[in-house]
Amino acid sequence: MQFPDQLLYTKEHEWIRVEGNTATVGITDFAQSELGDLVYVEIETVGETLSKDEIFGTVEAVKTTSDLFMPVSGKVLEFNPALDEKEGNDPTLINSDPYGAGWLIKIELTDSSELSGLMKSDEYKSMIGK
Questions:
Q1: CB atoms < 10 A from the CB of 81, how many?
Q2: Nearest to 10 by CA among 69, 81, 89
Q3: d(CA 68, CA 54)
């Protein structure tokens, strides 16, 4: 199981990679392994500005559906087109490459001070008992 050091993590198992005033968000390797094979991703918040902890979408696995929470406040700029089943693409990329090709959204940060409330990789590993 991977926990890249350059990412920040939430208690709800999202990760965020910050690059300037934009960030990429996904779910952790731990989260995808707990959910199992993902069959559908629904994100209808592109263009919306959401607050930290607001729901930005859902992921659906064979046996369950899980909400996705904003790690920080921001404007949703993009949904990963490689995951969009409507376009004939593959949501299982989240299972095979959660920190790379399986990213979920890109956001424009509206309050970068919220980043300080997120966990570093060692804190996240400790939280999940790894």
A1: 9
A2: 69
A3: 8
- Residue among 120, 104, 129 at smallest CA distance from 30: 129
Reference 105, options 58, 63, 60, 65; nearest CA is: 58
**Residue 116, Cβ density class (10 Å: 0-12 exposed, 13-18 middle, ≥19 buried):** exposed
Q: What is the reported pTM?
A: 0.93
What fold characterizes domain 8-108?
OB fold (Dihydrolipoamide Acetyltransferase, E2P) (2.40.50)
Q: Which residues contact 98 (CB under 8 A, 6 or more apart)?
A: 2, 15, 26, 27, 28, 29, 31, 32
The dihedrals phi and psi of 65, each to the nearest 5 degrees, come to: -120, 140
State residue 63's pLDDT score: 85
For the chain, the structural domain boundaries read 8-108
% of the chain beyond a pLDDT of 90: 83
